[in-house]
Amino acid sequence: MAGDLIVGVGGDGSGFQAARFAARVASLMQSTLVLVFGYEAVAMGPRGGALEEQIEAVGDSAVAEIRAELAGTYPNLTIEVEMVQERPVDALINAAAARNAEAIAVGHGGSGPLKAALLGSITYEIVHRAPIPVLVVPNDEADTE
What we know:
Elements: E1 5-8, H1 16-29, E2 33-38, H2 50-73, E3 79-84, H3 88-99, E4 103-107, H4 121-129, E5 134-137, H5 141-144
């Protein structure tokens, strides 16, 4: 059994293609798939405020959606979830370090007219900071619209 595979999942559906790909790999490797939703609360005011609750609800919904899909496709795959109040990049790197993960999977990211040519800021930073392999998976347009 190999180490865990960490996947970044966004509240907007970003990372769903990465989660699908990583689930396939984790299933073959008999690894645990860890879906990580990291969010910042810097400008939200006091902890426990309404905005924070809304962000957590969006994260819960996104993670539940992809987790249910993956569990149906890979019934023997262990899927765990981490909802972390920290920068998404830090949440992914810290989860990978804490679990001695094999790799981190992220969506291609990016937005605007140059999205096909440029990595998103989170993806770019993960690629440059992660001490383990990073799998960058192209996003399916249907996931992020």
